[in-house]
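Good day; I would like, with your permission, to put a structural problem before you. The record follows directly beneath this note:
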Amino acid sequence: MNTHTLSAAAERARLSPHQVRIYVDMGLLHACATTPGGYRLFDERCVERLKLIKACRDAQISLADIAEFLRSLDGSDRARCKAAERLLKARIRDRRQALARCACALAVAQPGT
């Protein structure tokens, strides 16, 4: 099993070590092992989970919504997974609509266009 320190996992996911510590503290991510010295180790599955969290944060999805989504993924309740997926899709739709409204407002606000 190929593992990474917290800092290396953060770098692979393009996050800061501080962000990863927050996600670990929130229970969004768990180390797969620890070294004898107490350092947490993360495998590729953890790195992929961090990339998912980052993608959701980049889309301005709240940590609470991300936590619910991840709990759904971790469970075996397909209905809960579908509900979480619907929630995320609704958040994405809302963001797209907000961006479209911004673009329209900008077009109206620009004189001479």
Notes: Residues 3-109 form a domain with the Multidrug-efflux Transporter Regulator; Chain: A; Domain 2 fold (CATH 1.10.1660.10). The first strand starts at residue 3 and ends at 5. The radius of gyration is 18 Å.
